[in-house]
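Replying to the earlier thread about multi-chain prediction with a worked example.

Input:
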Amino acid sequence: MKITSADKAIESLKDGMTIMVGGFMSNGTPEILMDAIVKKGVRDLTVIGNDGGIPNTGIGKLVAAGLVKKMIASHIGLNPLVGQLMNEGRMEVTLVPQGTLAERIRAGGAGLGGVLTPTGLGTEVAKGKEIINIDGNDFLLEKPLRADIAFVRASVADRLGNIMYKGTTRNFNSLIAFAADLVIAAAEQVVDVGGIAPESVATPGILIDYLVEGEA
Amino acid sequence: MTEKEIIARRVAQELRDGDVVNLGIGLPTMVADYIPEGVRIVLQSENGMLGMGRLATDDNLDKDIVNAGGVPVTAEPGAVFFDSAFSFSIIRGGHVDLTVLGALEVDETGSLASHIIPGKMVPGMGGAMDLVTGSRKVIIATTHTAKGNAPKILKRITLPATAVGKVNMIVTELAVIDVTDKGLLLKEIAEGKTVEDVQALTEATLLVAPDLKTF
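Result:
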């Protein structure tokens, strides 16, 4: 775990990579890391996150800058640009039920081969997917998701990278921290080790590679 | 009272003391304004919260606490925050008593279309598919018709399904309808309306409850 700048932290981010971004309608999205990605201008990203952000905040910044080739999300309704690009065939969007998205990411980070869920049975979500019957009930086999880099937002982090999330900002952050080869967190506040009660740590520092200060 | 207020107030009559409830964005959220006296419910918000309070005001705004629409809300005493996998363990795992959602179309088999009009409107399903799958009861809160009086309550939905056979009840400004094995059972009609008025704006054939009431 290393404390560094946003620009340094994303040095290994390249065109065509798959990234995961924490947040829910931009609540809990690391904005300073989104800004750094836009500044770097990498292209053809596949972005996995709950939603398409809000115009010009969160994932919406990456969309507006034309950096996103494909999005895997549960909801894109609050960012009209995503739907527009999708309908114009300029961006590929895969819609995944929110609970399924969470479990697929969890599976990707937990060493599981997938999850079995009843969500989406009988709908277009089930198309092309294996249906497995367990004790008389049907379930969809949903495969794990992983990324090259995950972008996490911490409310408070200590110098070992242990993270506490305030309010509803935890959402997908604590899940994606498990599911990427490189994990970068931006913190609103960085405190000395011991500054967060151990039982309040939702993401242990062993999962974090780079910590960036200065999240608003 | 607007149509939406009438619908929200009627849906609120279905709330039972102690219920864990998830209200969708938009009209369903308004149900919280009409919780009957003496009924205490726990609002679940799929972005990661139990014990959600009212929309925040300038006096009590906390930027870190938002509802599933990203709008700042307050937390009730005893509120709990968690991650999205935990949140959907509550939802999918059958720990939500009632979910209230809007609809583009709903049909007599209890199927619902609410998340996409191909080529036009693509908001996505968000948490709706998990909510209809895991909630003990699903109520659709919607205006009875779309623009130009086009029926929304159909024999079969025509848009991509958000849920297949999961809806238990439909509440509109004109009617309260139960989804039963035999079809749609009209249980209540708005004061001043007739069964014929409601049927004329409904594609599906309505069965009429013997003890039809008004609301």
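Chain A touches chain B through 50 residues (CB under 8 Å).

Feel free to reuse this layout for your own posts.
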